[in-house]
């Protein structure tokens, strides 16, 4: 075993064979380190400051000097909660269970399940709002579901990302009616990698004008930014609306609607882009279909 402690960036990365001195002493049959630290984990102390905690190998630890009588006295101490049996599953883990506000003590597994259920309830409570907003968007005749596909050109020999050569802008109305399908070059006409059929900003601007008075639903904010930049560089006004409520992001609605909690992090799993305007519209329709109007709606 190496003498150099292994560094861990979070408690989730620490293997079960390493424990802190405190945890070793809290075991059902307490132990103490029998060798040097074999790891160190980055954490925060009770003041919220960054610190590091030494980790010791369980295999190298040795029993403490506590006698059986002392262990029994500590277990039966008056007023102390029994943290050696999980209230929910009855497990008797070597590490003490964690007391909770409602008086139960839970093992790590049951405590994790409780936190997961709490996260799920909180996520489910937000779903109705996303469904209502999706239904409102679909009911707006000004809606334009916009997908932008960039033509990437890789990187330079030095590793610098080349700017995209073109952008295909596809927009659909709330009933799926086509609004525009325009491929516009974003670079000069002699640049490499321009797809066949890509038009100039001057030719694309009138075709994109159909989006001027629309409520734009992009997958995420900024999808149209390369197109706007190319139009400005050509001395043309951007036709895309700005201001509060003029641009919406579908990913936020999808994230809230799916409410898919990661069992590891207890946070919402990232959502994957639909990749096309028709799929974006179908996703929006699915979200809106779960809307349950109230009498006041």
Automatic annotation (TrEMBL):
This is Uncharacterized protein. It comes from Streptomyces corynorhini.
């Amino acid at each position: 075993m190496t003498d150099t402690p292994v560094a861990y960036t979070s408690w989730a990365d620490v293997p079960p064979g390493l424990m802190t001195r405190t945890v070793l002493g809290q075991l059902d049959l307490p132990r103490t380190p029998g060798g040097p630290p074999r790891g160190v984990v980055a954490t925060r102390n009770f003041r919220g400051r960054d610190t590091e905690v030494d980790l010791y190998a369980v295999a190298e630890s040795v029993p403490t000097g506590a006698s059986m009588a002392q262990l029994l006295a500590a277990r039966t101490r008056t007023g102390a909660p029994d943290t050696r049996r999980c209230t929910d599953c009855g497990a008797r883990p070597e590490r003490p269970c964690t007391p909770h506000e409602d008086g139960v003590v839970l093992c790590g597994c049951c405590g994790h399940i409780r936190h997961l259920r709490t996260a799920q309830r909180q996520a489910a409570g937000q779903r109705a709002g996303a469904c209502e907003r999706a239904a409102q968007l679909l009911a707006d005749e000004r809606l334009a579901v916009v997908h932008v596909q960039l033509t990437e050109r890789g990187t330079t020999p030095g590793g610098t990302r080349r700017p995209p050569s073109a952008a295909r802008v596809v927009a659909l109305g709330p009933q799926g009616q086509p609004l525009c399908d325009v491929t516009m070059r974003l670079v000069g006409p002699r640049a490499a990698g321009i797809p066949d059929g890509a038009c100039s900003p001057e030719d694309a601007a009138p075709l994109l004008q159909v989006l001027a008075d629309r409520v734009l639903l992009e997958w995420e904010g900024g999808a149209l930014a390369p197109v706007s930049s190319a139009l400005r560089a050509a001395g043309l006004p951007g036709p895309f609306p700005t201001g509060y409520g003029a641009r919406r992001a579908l990913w936020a609605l999808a994230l809230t609607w799916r409410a898919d909690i990661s069992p590891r992090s207890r946070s919402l799993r990232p959502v994957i882009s639909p990749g096309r305007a028709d799929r974006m519209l179908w996703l929006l329709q699915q979200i809106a279909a779960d809307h349950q109007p109230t009498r006041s709606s």
